[in-house]
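User: Please predict structures.

Assistant: First:
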Amino acid sequence: MKFRLYFLLLIASIFLFIFSHTTANTSNFTINLESTFFVMTLTHFYRALAILLLTVSLLYIVKDVSKVKIKPIYERLHVFGTIVLVITLLYLNNENNVLKTRSNISDEKLNFYNHGLELILISLILFQFLFLMNTFAVQVKQVLTSSKQ
């Protein structure tokens, strides 16, 4: 079988799932959206990211089986963009947790990392919706061109 670019998402999801079993349940992923705090253990956060990446890679497999053609530049942009956003999200979360353990850190610096986490998480979710919309638009375009012939 030829190596496809979306296999990177599959590999990343397997890595995150394995990594989720090695983290302690004492660490939390905390994000503050406006006045609401969302808190979950890092184990569950890594598993949720793994499920997201696994779902996207399965959508790519379905796309290949159904022979939906997407421009390769969009596929590369989506896969690499998703991986970069996940790595950035994990890095910012780690930095945020490290900063919380220090006593002399200002609230402004914590807010900076918290807003970064918000933006990256929202961007990651919107990036997946853009992929789905692009796939749907290509499918509709194929149906319309085949009905005209």
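Second:
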Amino acid sequence: MAEMLSQKNIEFEDMLKASNAALDDVKAQLKETEARLISVEQTNIELDQQLNLAELKCGDSDREIKELHDKVSELSNLVKASEEEHAISKCHFQAYQDM
């Protein structure tokens, strides 16, 4: 009976050692996973900052495009008005020469 108890005790000690080894492995995996999580979170923060900067630049570009479009429109209107004035002046000049 003592031999059987001793054998069971050895088996339980072996199981305990195996469980402790498995626990140590899980703890190591947990630390590695936590380190990866911290790294991923930092990368996420950096990407969010880059996205915010890109969105700001995009907004600035959109405003600049609108301003340039408005300026082109204004200049086109000025060119059109100048061409009309030129045509009128040309007619007046032609009429003056015909006199």
